[in-house]
Amino acid sequence: MSTKTTVISPEALQQQLGFCEQIKDYWHSQTLTPLAYVETYGCQQNEADSERIRGLLIESGYAITDTAEGADVVVMNTCAIREHAELRVFGNLGALTHTKRRHPRQKIFLCGCMAGQEKVVERIKKSYPHVDGVFSTHHLWQFPEILHRVLFAGKRTYFTQDEPGSIAEGLPQQRDSKLKAWVSIMYGCNNFCTYCIVPYVRGRERSRKAEDILSECRQLIESGVKDLTLLGQNVNSYGKDLSQNIDFADLLKMIADIPGDFRIRFMTSHPRDASKKLFDTMAASPKIAKQLHLPFQSGSSRVLKAMNRHYDREAYLEKVQYAKSVMPDLVLTSDVIVGFPGETEEEFEETISLIETVRYDSLFTFIFSPRAGTPAASMDDPTTKEEKNRRFDRLCAVQNLISEDIHKGYIGKTMVCLIDGTDKDMLTARTEGGRLVRLTGDESLIGTFAPVTITGASTWSLTGEL
Ligand code: SAH
Ligand code: SF4
Ligand code: F3S
Q1: pLDDT per position as a tens digit, 426-447
Q2: Closest ligand 2 atom, CA of 297?
Q3: Residue 77: CB within 6 Å of ligand 3?
């Protein structure tokens, strides 16, 4: 089998870095240090992309600021997952007319998942004339060229052609944290869950070569990073598009074998592709965090089929049971959608009973939001909004009790935590399972792993002592 994934050539990337150089020279000749502001919506994929956008901006001579006010470049890196996410972006985009009026040099860009939808691009063209450029996730690596064109040709620029997507290695990346790092191992999604927009806006699954991922991880660990999160929409199908014969469990093991004191976690796992081999690999390596985000979406097999999830309730429960049997301290989290078209009261109760059976540490709960162009958007949906809200509230109430109960169970336990920062006058730390712990202690401990005894718990966080 040959490699299907297209990797951007080093020459093409070099050309982009050439644009950065020209932009930097321009600002230099004006004896100005321009400011750039990047606002991120959505998931970790977007956060990682924003780090790349900031990297390219710094390469182009910009200093990063934390407000749109007075910024020479504003980039809105957007999310299209639910209607609410899009409405927020349109609202905030409207407000940028004022920041631009006060600072006419300001150039405004919209990118990310919303930019992958034609109807959004059309709306920006027509109704948001203050936006200077739009680029979809496929074109992120060409941002220097877009910025160059907007600055020097004064043209509104759109890089939004639909394409299967590619991989750009070696983009500069301005990482938010010195201790924790995102590592994208793959891009895109092939699953086409019937409610989801992601495959349409992020293109087909593309895996990075294992050697590229490993060399990035090695560099990060050498530079002092202690917590790596491997990213992909469905990390368990890693490598299926490559000829290297390395699956996700193999990749995890290869990363865990890098010498050093660090932890690895990953998200997101699709239950269909989560294998016993993966769980055994996690269980066998002390460096792989015993944390699993395994979205189930619904507790009803009928609804799961309508969602095109390719597993049923029983298969999901079996996998969870196996994972817990080999990792008794596993911290399990998940995503769930309430009010999928046609979900009946009984089917909703199946979701409740699944939650009660599995007992997640925490849950991300969503009310179904129709996304134009996806199959679920045109399915019959007789349930009222009020009824969906009622189900949602009930689900949250059930989960909050479970979270609280699980958190109380932590009290008295001593766990090795990564001390990762401060919040007001407390230190913050993360358990192996990714739970937040607040404690008192000296700031010199930041960046170290230390045993912490848990002394208190609430629904959302823990308190502890060294
Ligand atoms: N690739 C990940 C999910 C990414 S989107 C996975 O499959 O696990 C994050 C979550 O948003 C999904 O798990 C789902 O619960 C929710 N979501 C996606 N589309 C949605 C929609 N149209 N309405 C409501 N929630 C949605
Ligand atoms: Fe969306 Fe499904 Fe892909 Fe997750 S696996 S990104 S929910 S289509
Ligand atoms: Fe949103 Fe795109 Fe992530 S739609 S959830 S930012 S992949």
Answers
A1: 999 999 988 899 999 999 999 9
A2: 7
A3: no
Q: Are 27 and 33 in contact (CB under 8 A)?
A: yes
Q: Which residue has the least CA distance to atom 11 on ligand 1? A: 81
Q: How confident is the model at residue 2, as a pLDDT?
A: 44
Report whether CATH 2.40.50.140 matches the domain 414-465. yes
3-state SS assignment for residue 206 = strand
Residue 383 beta carbon below 6 angstroms from any ligand 2 atom:
no
92-133, pLDDT tens digit by residue?
999 999 999 999 999 999 999 999 999 999 999 999 999 999
- Would you state the pLDDT for residue 455? 94
| Ligand minimally distant from the alpha carbon of residue 371 | 1
Atom 24 in ligand 1: which residue has the minimum CA distance?
Answer: 368
pLDDT, one tens digit per residue, over 303-333 is 999 999 999 999 999 999 999 999 999 999 9
SS3 at position 360:
coil
Using left for φ > 0, alpha for ψ between -120 and 50, and beta otherwise, residue 447 falls in left
How many A from CA of 30 to the centre of ligand 2? 47
Domain 6-166: which CATH class? alpha beta
| pLDDT at position 4 | 65
The class that CATH gives domain 172-408 is alpha beta
**Domain edges within the chain:** 6-166, 172-408, 414-465
For the segment 330-337, the average pLDDT, to the nearest whole number, is 97
Q: Which atom of ligand 1 is nearest to the CA of 370?
A: 22
CA–CA separation, 436 vs 284, rounded Å? 24
Say if residues 131 and 109 touch (Cβ distance below 8 Å).
Answer: yes
